[in-house]
């Protein structure tokens, strides 16, 4: 089995986070034929989002910033697996990684990373990785990824003690195995009730063309205006019922708001 993986490194230095990702790469390469590529956000030309909203409203090609955003996006699109790695900075991802998320915010509107595996790798000094892992996993789910439980580690500034190193080795090897099994599995994640409800309510707004026209066209092209979800999957009866009800209510409210204009 061979696969392409891209690791986006959000740390502004070649420090502990990179060390963990390198270790993860070695473990992963023992499991299969993996082409592992790095993108160092500290070294790429990725300007700060200006918040004009052109990507959301008109399309990503209307972004006024000319830099390497599309190259990074294409690397992610061409990969089977994507890693976002970041140290915890003030209980969040680093500004470098947050800027990438903002620059790709149009993907929340027009998700496109289906059938690809995602895993977050987060290091902390003391506290915060749980929240950051959860945050990155949620972003990735919105973007369409199959999200694998992440790797969070507490690391010291100085060289780790042998017992600490043993813990990193074990946790990193386990994470690589998790990632590999997601990567090699053909099954997509089963959507949660929340995901079904979000899909249905967003699609409801698009279906009456109350949404952003660009998003409406995208949903139409993908066949999502008639589908049960973004991709064929098993959705239990109660999620279907609640989803349909929410969709009807959303349409009702949107029509009412339109009439009131
Ligand atoms: C600006 C800054 C903010 C930080 N904020 C946190 C934090 O909120 N929680 C925490 O546990 N560690 C925090 N740390 C520590 C880093 O998360 C930790 O040292 C990390 O392993 C560094 O990764 P690196 O070696 O890849 O830079 C912070 C470090 C810096 C430089």
Automatic annotation (TrEMBL):
Domain of life: Bacteria
Documented EC number(s): 1.3.99.24
UniProt enzyme class: oxidoreductase
Stretches assigned to the NADPH-dependent FMN reductase-like domain: 4-150
GO molecular function: oxidoreductase activity
Xref: Gene3D superfamilies: 3.40.50.360
InterPro entries named among the record's database cross-references: Flavoprotein-like_sf (IPR029039), FMN_Rdtase-like_dom (IPR005025), ISF_SsuE-like (IPR051796)
The keyword Oxidoreductase appears for this protein: yes
Pfam families: FMN_red
Keyword line: Flavoprotein, FMN, Oxidoreductase
Protein name listed in UniProt: 2-amino-4-deoxychorismate dehydrogenase
Annotated source species: Sporotomaculum syntrophicum
Gene label: sgcG_1
